Amino acid sequence: MDISSLLQPKNILFDETIHSKKDLFRTMAELLEKNGCIKNKKKLIVDLEKREKVVSTGIEDGFGIPHAKSKCVVKPTIAFAHTNEISDYIALDDTKVQCSFLLAIPSDSNDLHLDILSSLSRKLMNEDFRNKLKQAKTQEEVMTILSD
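The line above is the sequence of PTS sugar transporter subunit IIA; the predicted structure tokens follow.
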């Protein structure tokens, strides 16, 4: 799966003011609503929080993949956020998440989110890939890293 085909540069965010998971979900949902990817930011936030209650989506080395299937999603979308370390978003290795790929999937999609999760997880196993994303400063850099 080509991750870069689902991630548009306008859905890449660099925001050092985000310090909580709540702020992350709110800011990313606002971005996706503004860009026409979802119809209702509050609904997406509720669905993301519901998914987080099952198990945290923080994976490792400061990366998280929050995701939700939701009726408010217009089309499958990936958003990326680079933030400060988020104090209440802890990955499996006890690092604080600072890079997040948010997956917003329409509720009537079959297993698309599993394909995306699988593809992203494989890429994130590569330390060089993770380091490049952490050092990226622009939307263009992120897109280049994802398309390599």
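Note on the example: The mean pLDDT is 94. Helices lie at 21-34, 41-54, 112-124, 127-135, 139-147.
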